[in-house]
Amino acid sequence: MRKFLVLTFVALFAMVSVVAAADTASTGLKIGVVDMQTLAQDSDPAKAGRAELEKKYGKERKELEDEGEKLRKRAEKLKDPKASEESKLAFLRAKQDLDQKTRNFMRKVEQDEVKMRQDMIVLVFNATYNVAQSKKFNFVVDVTAGGVLYAEQSMDLTRDVLAEVNRMFKEQGNKAAAPKQPAKK
Known about the structure:
This protein is mostly helical. Helices cover about 70% and strands about 5% of the residues.
């Protein structure tokens, strides 16, 4: 019974694939794919954003790490049974203070990261739109979103979109433009 179900599923999938391929061929539908993860790691705006965050928050991050290391050393000393209750309370207060500073720091960094991601998304969408229009693609999907199991290499627009993102980033001087709206038909 199980074997029958599997064979039925495989046959159904094959028929759907053939019909979809025939439909795509007859309508001239061109579907492209883009690896958004690659764009998020390798594009000039992504690299510039990481560098900007490091420049803006690197010193503060290092100070918090150093303060945390000092607290770890203090904690080791408090394992001694001769440690006073007063020193243990002072340690707890210092740890709570560091925890609060760390939470505040993380909130600031997260706000900047969200803004940078939003700007990056606008830039990537605009670049994808430009590439899809110039190469006459009707539809472009993100392969990292998990819905694409296979795509021919000729459908992969990642390198083209990466080049367009980098070009637009340089042209706009680190500013993302408003998203383009597809032309109404």
